[in-house]
Each structure stands twice: as structure tokens, then as C-alpha cells.
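Office hours follow-up: a student asked to see two folded examples consecutively, so here they are.
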Amino acid sequence: MYRLRVFPSQGEDFEIPLVDESISIGRVSESDLVVKDRFLSRQHARLYRQGDHVWIEDLGSSNGTWVNDRRVEQRTEIHPGDELRLSTSYITLLADGLETPTPRQDPINRHNTDYRRAEDLIDSDSATDLGGLHPREAFRRQADRLQLLNSIHRALSETVQLDELLEMILDRCFEALLPDHAAIFLKRDNGEYYLAAERSSGGPGIDHLYSKTLLHEVADNKMAALVRDAKTDHRFNEADSVLGLGIQSLVAAPLLNPEGSLGMIALASSLEKSLFVEEDRDLLASLASIAALGIHNIKLAQRATEEAAQRRLFEAELNLARRIQVAVLPTELPRIAGYNLAGSTIPSRGVSGDYYQAVERLGGKETVLMVADVCGKGICASLTTLSLEALAAGPIEVGRPPAELCTRVNRRLHTRTLSNRFATAFVVVLEPHGRILRYASAGHPGLLVGAKGNIITLDSTGPPLGAFDDIEYRESSVLIDAGDTLVLYTDGIIEAANPDGEEFGTARLADVVASNLDDELGALSRSIETALEEFVEGVPFTDDRTLVLLRKL
């Protein structure tokens, strides 16, 4: 037969048989087992019995339930001789033949460690009761506490660095609580804790107070701790450095902010000093709460400064990339006998995935126009564009015809870039005073708008460059007469969208060109850009816009 030996924090020990299959434990009369403990929750825990098996379950209590000093996170089986700690009270499960433990009037002195939820202590209504003091003394202590906390609030209003703030916090801890040693542990982004600040009134520091158990209970579980005697608490049996310093009493509190715990403050008192009490722990919890606000704000400011520096660095790199890209674009277009030529690129993100070129070759016998649009936007697309320009330069210079030029560039781009990197391109070769335009299109259409407004679409003669290996591109040709205008463009123009999601489209582009055939090419470019701005009605352009115009005189 099972029975329970109860050691309440208030009153005499007692023993009851465990008869019912389920009993609730709490501090109110509605509980099956009422334990006199002002820190116990109203419904703190529940015991279940099924045959020879017994389980304990915490009911969301404020101060937790422990089995042999292990916190109960889920239903846990217990055995005869196991000890349950509920707040500051203890219960031992006994069975027939098992010796009853020696009664105790003060169960706290057995483990000497008391954990309370820091959030409860920060609330003045649940702080340590000072009712046992003379009213004048209780009032004085509360006034001193408020004055201290107010001074910290004022100090936080000043702009200080994190190191300065931590030193100020240590100053206040030594002034108010008179420890021998103090340390502040902060959490890194990876979840590890490090010693951020420490102070000792004499002798060595307390970096050895880095206790995983203490950090877990205080920082991770957001509990304020009071250790009355570290020598008699088995949690510190392996902390020889702590005991070697003569440390007897400890208080610790988590640094809480709305996003969670930032770390903890730990104070230690030596054998020569008085032990810490509940009032000290409560005050430290309030002080830590205010300190956490300052630490959080400084970290936010530091993060904002770092992000601003990163943005400035990114913008500098973006400007450099833009200058490099601009350097490969034509600074001056060639003068072609019998033709007028204009070209421009407007990037959407500072640097562009668009590219165009106009190159005279073979001693001026031919001129090559090339327009390309690399998939994607920004710096990555810009780098691919630079690679495309370098790969195309050689075949252009040695006189490769349009289809062969696309075939060679495609093969090299496919082997030298990622599989998801490709580019559409339109390459056209024209002879001065000639009427035939020879071209190859790698998934990149063009328009030829006649002098009378008739429109010819120049279709693709192969897939985008770099998309597939071993592609042989075809060459095509078209006649161009006086007054005809060749229009080469990228997707940023025809895919520009208005607030309804409708795209500008090829038909609108052709209409704008056909309606302004009497304009010189610079004016025609401006008309196209004006038509685009009016169409999108303020919707930002999401892609680069490149336009090359060639008109036969």
C-alpha cells in the first residue's frame, strides 16, 4: 500500500494513504490534498495511481513541480522513496516496508534552494511580504527599493554603450545588496551564454559561477533563485571553485524582456557576510527586469547601427558594380553611313541584367548590334551580364555571323555558369548602305516598323543562351527600307504593369513607334518612356529597361 509523507512549508509534517486513483494537490480547499504553502498554486499538481504505478503531473503551476530535483515537464512516473518538491513544500512517496523519513519543520533547509517565477516577483503584489516588519521599517525598505529602481530607470534614459550599462548595473547591485561577487551572463545569438561582466570586492572573480544548472533554471526557465547555502546543496557538489572561494549564499535573476530571456544576473556572498534572503531575491528580480530593458534597447541600437553599416557597404558595392557595368556599355555609338542609331538602359535595382552593344568590325564594313537580357535582377544578373559581354567580344571582333556567334556564346555560357542562369539575346549585322539585316535571335524578339506604320515581328531563331548545350542557331534576314525603324527591347518595357496587373505589351510599343515615326530617335525614346510612365500610373518598374533604335535614312 502506498502513502504520502507531506512536509509543508507551513505547519507540521503529516502522512496520508494514497487510496484514490487520482488526487489533486494545491493550496485551496477544493484540492484533494491541501498543502499550506503560500507559494503553491491553487491547483498545483495531480497524482495518478494505476495498480502498482504512480504518476505525477504538473497543472501549469507558477513555481513548478520537481521529482528528485528534476523538473516535471510532462506526466512522470514516480517510485517509493522519490521526493516531490512543489514550490517550497516536499512530498515523499512511501510503501509498506519503506522507512518513514525523519520529520522536518523546515524543508527548505534540506536543499537550501528556492526558485520563484521572476514575473511573479516583479509584480509588487506578489513580492516578498514585509508584513512582519514594523510599519515604519517596511515603508523605509519599500521607499529604498523604489528609489533604487527609479535611479536605474533614469540611468537607462542616457545613451550608453553596453559595457557602460553593465558596469552601472553592477554598481547598483553592490550598493543595494552588498554581495562579495557579481556576474552578468548574456545569451549569444546561437543560444550559448557568456560572461559579459563581473565584479569582486576582493580576491578572484566568479567566472566559475557559470553553472549550466543555474543558467537553465534562471535564464531558460525564467526563475529567480535563492541559494541559502551552496555547501549543502548537491547542485554545487562539483563546483569546487565556488566552494573554494568561500561562497555560501547566492541569488540570481533572469534578464527578461518581451522577446524572452537575455541571460541572468548572479550575486554571491561569502561566509563572512550575512546570507541572502527572499527580499534580496525579489529586489534583484525587479532590478534585472529594468536592466534587461536597457540591454535590449542597446542591442537594438547596435543591431540598427550594424545594419546601417551593412547597407552602406552594400550600396558602395552596388555603386561599384554599376560603374563596372556601365564601363562595358557603349559610351558613344558608332556613326553608320545611311543609318541613325540610339540606345539606352535603365536599371531597376541600381545594376542591371540588361546589356546592349554596337560594334564596327572588318574595317567598318559591318556593324554588329547586340541586345541581351539576363534572367534575374541585381548584382547576380549583372555578373552574368559581364560574363556574357566577355564571351561575345571575341566572336564579334573576328567577324562571326549572327547564328555562329550565338552558337559559340551559348556553348561557353552553358559550361561556365549555373544551370539556372541564361540570357535572351538578339544579334543583328548590317552593312552600310545595304538593305538586308542578317540576324539571330536567342529567344529574344524584335520589331521592324515600316515608314508607313506597317509592323514586322522578328521571331526567335533558337532558345536562350546558356539554357541548353550543343544548340545550333539559325540565321534569318529582313529587308529594311528608308524610314523603317528597327526596335530592339527587353522584357522590362513590354512587361511593365499598371495597377490592374495589365502589361504594356508589344502592341502598345509598336503603336507608340508607329505614331512617332517623324521624330528623331532621341525624341522617340523619350516618347516610349513617357508612354510607359503614363501606363503604369506610379507602379514601380520591376525589371530593367533597355531600348535600341536603328532607322534607315
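And the second, which I mentioned at the end of office hours:
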Amino acid sequence: MIISILLRNFKTYRGINFIPLTNEEKFCGILGNNGIGKTSILEALDCYFNSRDWNLHVSIRRSGLTTIAASITPIFLIKKEKIHTDHRDLCEKISTVIWNITDADVAAANKPYLKDFVDQREKIILNYSEDEYYLLPIGNEYPNANSFGVFNCKKLGESVIDGFTNNRMNAEELKLLDDLKYHLKEIYEYIYIPKDISTVELTQLERKEIQALMGESLHQILESRVTQTQIREINRNLNDFISTLSTELVDYSFRTPTERQQNLKKQDIYNLIIQAYFNPRRLHKKEGEQWLDIENLSSGEKQKAIIDVAHNLIKNHHSNSENLILAVDEPESSLHMSACFEHFIKMFEISNACNQFFFTTHWYGFLPIIDNGSVISITKGTAKHDFDYLSLANYRELVKQQIRESRGSLPHDIRLKSMNDFIQSIISSVLDEEPFNWILCEGSSEKIYFEGYFEDLKLSHKLRIIPVGGAGEIKRIYQNLSVAIEEFKREIKGKIYFLIDTDSELLSFETSNTNKIAVKRMVNSENDTKLVNINSNPKSPVTEVEDVLNGLAFYNTLLKFKQDYAEELDFIEAGETIDQIPSYYALDLRVTERDKLSVFFDTDNNKFKFANSYIDEIKENTYDTPNWITEIRTFITSE
């Protein structure tokens, strides 16, 4: 996959720009105002992979290339086994440096960009190993040279060139990348669908984009259906006809200029079939008993057709799309808001079958919908672009954090736009004939537990589980949503379940529970966990998700962590008899022991590690399902 890209003086990007795209996710959104540079990223990749014409920054067009350079340098994270053995030695040398390079290794002017890369690399290392993956910044420099971007330094030069002594490699020395770069472009197939492309033109079977989505060219298709034996038979019959005609004409014959009489070649037949058989065919959409030409559909329907066709070809026809990179510019263009929801779900499904799916958008409603994705928000500072990265797995929590940390204006955009689109996406989804169902909880660890317990409902009941970053956000979302709920209450078909913890300082707000909407607080009481209305009793003790899990599974999971956290978990001993009641009661800890357990959960991201380990434990062994989980399941699945 492409984890980031360095753009230098390309289109809207002046100077050097390091743009993070993903840390591990395949579904990669690019947000920002019109003209900010979203499309430029997709066009740059098209230029890199498909030889699209360079769109140089105006500063180059004014001053010329003698003083200002332009380059496109994708940074690839690729499994070593995907690289041909002929190129692995060079890849190993490059990758070893890139996995370990620091800003001290590069020129002073490049240090800020190297620091951004190192920040991203620290997150990449959490999920990818240097032993299994290459990190390769292999780029193009205008007009046809190679580039390492900001990574071009003495350390890298010494690694790939014997006796290298300069501070950076020159264009001649960088020619050593020629074959490797060509090989990378063979491995990946990049399809770019611009916003303004003609749907009729794009969906013709002769288009390389459609053939790439099918995973085979028309010539390959014809090769398996029009055999060499059939072509020889055609030539034989035609030659028989010419011979018969020559006999009838006595002293005359129809011949080619050369002595050897030319027969139809395989490619001649294929080209004729493509021209006469495939070319006249246009995409049609079935409406009732009628077939409508794609040209006669509305703009929104045409936009929808592009994603539908891509989705179905990759799902039903393409035999192996794991190296396909699909990029779509503003896929929601001309679509009604009610259609955007399902549109983005299909895009997400496409991404699961591909290597990556890039898209630009102005519709923020996908943020809470998608379980696993990333977004990069682009804003313009006083002298440069700023880039803020968000993971969709817990984007609302990150937004709250980045209100304080963002270098750009991401919080302003996200807070204003995402709430409105978020509410619209939920309402739209629960009004559908095949509705989605939602659980909105406080944090990402709750999401892990719920996804483990409700894994089957994600498919059977289109359940989406969204961590929103605290009880305050639950309140805010419910109050925004309740206005729309009241307006559409008779038409709602899906379920929405809001769930908060019991905190020491309870959050109070007015709610209205129905058979479609539930707003509950979990609290431990009388050796069990209750789901109560927000303002109902009991209002203590403090109850978090770690207090309401199956006690025996909780205990067995803690034992897995004791070796690494002996001091924090010194009160846990193997061989104890533990009941399958809520963990708060099952362990029966003293205050000091609870304090130690809190320290454990607040250390080294252990809340998330423990949650994943707990889910593995209940999947590998048989445990009772907590009553409160069963209660939520009943709510979601009941008619």
C-alpha cells in the first residue's frame, strides 16, 4: 500500500509537502475545501502510475526548471514476498535505511518532512514488521528522472552505491531505480476516476479502467473464447473461397501484393470483434421491465452507476484484486443525501477487496459509518498546507484530542460538518427498507467488546457500533438526533441504542425511550449489571465497561498480562475460584487493589489490548454471556 506521498511543486502544492495517507487502513478519504489540493493527490498518483501529463505548480511555469524542481514520491509499504527476487537486494538496502532513518541523517531543509515521516513510522511499526515489509520511497522527478524525495542523503547513498561519498545522489546515480520503479508499477494497478469524467465513456468495455476492474482485457477474454483452431478454420474457409473464385475467373485472382498470401491474424480477428461487437454496446440500467441507456439517467444515478459497476465487477468478476488501487474524485457528486449512505458503504466494501481505495469528498456522513478507514484533512496555513490525520475506528475521540493539538483547522471543519452529516446518515439509515441499527457508546474499548459479542449482528442486522468520545458526546448526539427522530418517528425501521457509563459525576438529560430508540446507563447493583434510564436509580457505584464483563473471563484474561505487569497485578493469583458474574463483584477487590487495576488499564494502551484479549478469550472458550449484553441483543433483534 501507499502510506504517504511527497509532492513537490505539483499543481496546488508549492515546495515540498509530506502527506500521510494511511497507517494501515485501506479506505482512505481526503477532506478539505474546494481548491485546497484534494484532487491534486489523486492526479499525482495517476501521473506516477499511468504517465498522466504533469500539472506543475505556477511557480515552475514562471521561473523554469533550472531553479525549481518538481517531483512525486509515493512511500510504499509492501510485503517482501511481492517483490521479485531480482529486486530484493536493492529493496533490502533501501528499506533498511528508511525503517531507521532520522532527521539527523538528512539536510536541514528536509528535517521537518523527515520528522513527519518518523511520526507516522512510529504508528506503522505497531502493526508492521521490518522483517516482513519493505518501506520504499520510489518517486518521479520531472520530467523523467527518479527520486528518493527528502530521503536522498549520504546514508542512503552509501547503502545502495559502493564507495559513495557525496551528500546526495545525482540523477545519473538514481538511474539504479529504473527497473525497480518499473516493477512497482507492474505490481500495482492504479485506476483514477475524475469527478468530471463522462459516465458513458468510462463504462465502455473498451476502456482500460473497466478492463482493470474486470481483471482481464478484452483481448484476454477473446483469447479464451475465440481459439486459434477457430481462426485457422476461418482462414481455411476464406482461402477456399478465394481459390474457387480464382478458378472461376480463369486468368484472374484476388491476391495480396506479396508472394505469400496474407491470412487473418489473431489480433485482426480480436480487433474486428471489439469494433463490431463490443463498441456498439453501452451500459444500461434496468428500471422495472425497461432498460435505460446510461446517458438517460440523472447525474446522481450516473455517479451511483460508476460505484455500482466497480463494486459488482470486483466482487463478482475480478479473480484477484489485491493489487488494485482505486481512486475516485468526489463520488457523492450530484447524489441525494439519502443515497450517500449506501454509496459509501459500497465504496468501503470495494476497499476490502482492493489494495487501497482513495477518495475525495465534501460529505462527512461517512465518518461514523465506516468501521476501518482513515481520513486526511487538508487546510491552508499562512504559507503552506497543513495535514491532519484521523483513524475512523475512533474518530470522535481523536477529534476531541485534536481540538487542542491540530496544526490546521480540522476541528472547526469536523465539528461543524460531521455532526450534521452524522445525524443525517443515521436518520437516513434507520428509515431505509433494509435499515441499519446502531449502538452509540462512549469509548473505543467498548466498541471492541460490543463487536466481539455482536459480531453476528453486524452482518445479519447491519449493526454499526460507534464510540463517540464520552457521555457528553452521547448527550449532544442524542439531543441533535431527537429532533429528527420526533419528525420521522412513525417511519423509523432501524434501532438506535445509546449507552453511557455511571460516573462519579452523573450526566443528566431528558430522554424518551421507545421500541426503536433506547438511552441507557449501565450500573452494577445486587451482584448484577442493570441497564437503567439516564436519570433513574441506582446512581452508584461508578461503573465502567471493565466492571461489567464476565468475571471468570475477565480474571483469565488478566492472568495473561500478569507476567508483564507483575507489580500492578500482584493481587491476581492463578487457581482462584471465580464466578461468572460481573467482574466488579467476581474479583471483590479492595480499594488499593482497584487502584492498582486502574493503573494497569491506564498504562501502555492496556484498555485496548485487554479488550482484544478478552474477546479472544470468550471466542476460544465457553462463558456465560452477561445479562446486560443479552438485553441489548434482544432490543436490536426484536421486531
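Two things to take away from it. The chain has a mean pLDDT of 90. The two ends are 43 Å apart (CA to CA).
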